[in-house]
Amino acid sequence: MHIDNASRQYETADGERRISRCFLLRRSYRDQNGRPRNETLANLSALPDRVIEALGKMLKGATLVDADDAFEVERSVPHGNAAAAHVMASQLGLRSLLGPPCRERDIAYALILSRAVRPESKLSTAGWWQSGDTTLGTDLSVADASTDDVYAAMDWVVSRQREIEDRLAARHLHAGGIAMFDLSSSWVEGSCCELAAFGHSRDGKRGRKQIEYGLLTCPEGRPVAVEVFAGNTSDPISFKTAITRVRDDFGIGRLIMVGDRGMITNTRIADLRKLEGMEWVTALRAPAIAALARDDGPLQMSLFDTRSFAEITHPDYPGERLICCKNPFLAAERARKREDLLAATEKDLEKIRASVASGRLKGAGTIGERVGKVINKRKAGKHFLREITDTAFTFRRDQEKITAEAALDGIYVIRTSVSADTLDPASAITAYKNLKYVERDFRITKADDLDLRPIYHYLASRVRAHVLLCMLAAYLTWHLRQAFAELTFTDDDIPANDDPVAPARRSAEARGKDGAKRNSGKLPVRKYGDLLDHLATLSRQTINFSGQRIEKLTSPTPVQRRAFELLRTLVPLTLQ
Q1: Which of 21, 250, 382, 529 is 20 to 30 A from 130 in CA distance terms?
Q2: Mean confidence (pLDDT) of the chain
Q3: CB neighbour list of residue 27: distance below 8 Å, 6 or more residues apart
Q4: Domain endpoint, select from 406, 427, 460
């Protein structure tokens, strides 16, 4: 039997062409004389095309099965985020950067990728690999990694820290160039960490032990090296260590180091003067600026009549350049903040005065203790005059000091040993302001993307390994953020600013993204973390079709497709 398509075309009286649909089920046979004949068994024209097609296949010997019975999605695993991180890491040569091929390198590489896309503890990460909830574990052959294997990989990677950082420095630092350095801290959980100590907490975690770490970056903010210190290490000591690393480990004899005013102190500058080829860019502290602004000092407001910055000299800074800057936006913000702090402090002090006046609070010592807590809370004590007796308490603002401080609002002074031939005033200001890139790296590493804190490890080597892995993940994240700028709110075309003191302005395209929540290609834009979450929805599926197992990626959304176009590749099926 077979199906015969006997449909025909014809033309109506008014010239319209139509089709007369006719599908016949027929049987072929030979008559008594041996001649071939066809017998029509049924007219199938009323059946849908798909039914006629299926019947035709069955008559030809095909076996048809129900789709639900033959087709089964056995597993669907998030893949796009890990694939994007792996593609970028491969372009950066991250595996070869870590060291020679070995089991420890594979696990360390997987730890870095995992930290970049799903920052969790090492134990949680190993469980994530083993659960099969990511393609990363199976594709990188680390799904069977035990806790001991993870710790062995951490010990291996920290033993290679100097070699890894030497290679990064060779990529991104060069003799006579600029390097950025800053210090941060993270609190420690538990009480047995060998490096934990009480110190100045940059996380606002009072009463918690911490560790500190200094980050060295290139001028654009790429992490190059990191050093971990005990939690009570001072900024100048950590900066001295960074100088040693640059000269001894990286072999760079000539370099401009940029650090904040608490990092590059007079003592450290004295040390730098002894090192040929090492120069610096930093800023003066507030008391030093006030000294320059005295009646007979060189820092006068007339310097800023026509420009927002001016270069001066002073005998207290021989062989150095002082570049005075005035930022009116910063001045307005400081004035607002000061007034808010003074008003809040006055409100609390007024409560104490009312308690003393009513007799509920007595004794000069007790009153002074309460007053001290209030003024220390907001560091506003220098702006108030106070009188305390056993039965009375009065206070008022010290308007003279407030006025003197307000006169210097928005003014900062760049201090540098670099000659004007190497860095003109505008370039020196820009170099100092570029410390914002190091601060951004700290935000990425500590909070936004990588969750470095808190520290759970006890051994000093494990703490250093954890921080190093986070730094390498930050290096990977820095490049991913750059590549995906088009799909996020990042401004990837910041307009040049004629005035280096003025705040940076967002480009017209970035402002358009802010308003429309779409880029110039009409694709939706997201925060970087949300973009990674969206990439994770691009999954790899294991499909069983009539006993045949195949792996296939889900069709990428326009944003996912564009993300991999920005990485200059197709979505890889596996991480190999």
Answers
A1: 529
A2: 90
A3: 1, 38, 39, 41
A4: 406
Distance (Å, whole) CA 474 – CA 119? 11
> How crowded is residue 518: how many other Cβ atoms within 10 Å of its Cβ?
12
Q: Which long-range contacts (CB under 8 A, 24 or more apart) does 331-336 make?
A: 331/409, 331/410, 331/411, 332/409, 332/410, 334/409, 334/410, 335/406, 335/409
Q: What is the structure's pLDDT at 408?
A: 92
The H-or-E segment that residue 94 falls in is helix 94-98
- Residue type (1 letter), 406: A
Whether the model clears a pTM of 0.85, i.e. scores above it, the answer is no
In a domain, 134, yes or no: no
Q: Is 213 exposed, middle or buried (0-12, 13-18, 19+ CB in 10 A)?
A: buried
> pLDDT tens-digit profile of 79-117?
999 999 999 999 999 999 999 999 999 999 999 999 999
Residues present in the chain in total: 576
Q: Which residues contact 92 (CB under 8 A, 6 or more apart)?
A: 475, 476, 479
- Interval 457-489: pLDDT, tens: 999 999 999 999 999 999 999 999 999 999 999
Domain that holds residue 372: 329-406
Q: Which of 298, 299, 306, 236 is nearest to 272 (CA)?
A: 236
Paired tokens of 117 = 């896309």
